[in-house]
Sequence to fold (151 residues):
Amino acid sequence: MILGLYEAHLPVSNKKRSIEFYSKLGLELAWQDEETAFFWIEKEKSWLGLWEGEEHKIPYHPSVRHVAFRVSCEDLKNSITWLNSINIEPVPFGRRTSVESFIRPNQGNASVYFNDPDGNSLELMCFVSVPEEMKSITDKLSFEDLEMWKI
Fold:
């Protein structure tokens, strides 16, 4: 029945500034009106709606102000360089101090985090093939840790 995610929404304080930011990420503007802008995440499959208004003042919580974009593992490994090249600073996740990509072996995915101009949490994320014996590990690992484990 469910085929995928159709849309997600984020609150923004300045639609024009947000359009510039999300365009830098390579997303295509699908349409806009006075208060909203929609960007294709995957053209004609899924999009992101940005809504200008006071709601951007809602304190951050991942259940209301977070979106993860799916990328390839190779792109994730190069994401810090790419983000820096478009003047976007990666941020540490949770209690981590490093902004480097990390793997969640128990979930089989890897991530890098950054924020939009309104402090909405954005994530670049990919699936990672994890050996069965690592799937109980809840610590965050680097790609190098994963490669060493496989040896």
Q: What stands out?
A: DSSP finds four helices and nine strands in the chain. The mean pLDDT is 93.
